[in-house]
Amino acid sequence: MSFRCFRLVELAIASTVEFTNVKCTSLDPKFVEFEYCYLKSVNRSYKYLSLKTKMFLLPIPKPNVNIEFLKRFSGYKPFLYNITVDVCRFMKNPKSNPIAAYFHGFFKNHSNMNHTCPYNHDIIIDRLSISFMNQHLTEVLPFPIGDYLFQSNWIADGINRANVNVYFTLS
Predict the structure, then answer these.
(1) Beta strands in the chain (DSSP E)
(2) pLDDT tens-digit series, residues 117-148
(3) Is 67 helix (H, G, I), strand (E, B) or coil?
(4) Domains (ranges, CATH) in the chain?
(5) What's the superkingdom here (predicted)?
(6) What DSSP character marks residue 29?
């Protein structure tokens, strides 16, 4: 009787996320303006996103955010989520909305938007690194490869005041 030994080879397939563009648009310049909004590539492996708003009417009344996740097929088409969140209610109880909690997880450690209302200061997202996004999109909730758009509409008093669109590729 003969036995054959087989070696099992473990292959690691690593997905990577790469920012391709960011667009920040103030729809109401009397309410909010973007002091800066950019992607920075320090080297091949360290890239990050930063933005800072200048808020003119403080505190921010009844903040809501509409988040939409789109995937590029023939143009950008809705993919998985399109939700509107009452920011004050969500920040009081983040476990109340797991989808909003997932999206908030993208930037909460890099932002000053991690407390309950009132918001009486400018909003900053500082050095949101591609490695952090990579971990969130490939390990926490894996997504298929492709081009994506994370679109957010920032609403106060029922009026859309600003849009932030982050384009990225998952390969």
Answers:
(1) 17-26, 32-41, 47-55, 63-72, 76-86, 124-129, 146-156, 159-170
(2) 999 999 999 999 888 788 777 777 777 889 99
(3) strand
(4) 17-170 (2.70.220)
(5) Eukaryota
(6) T
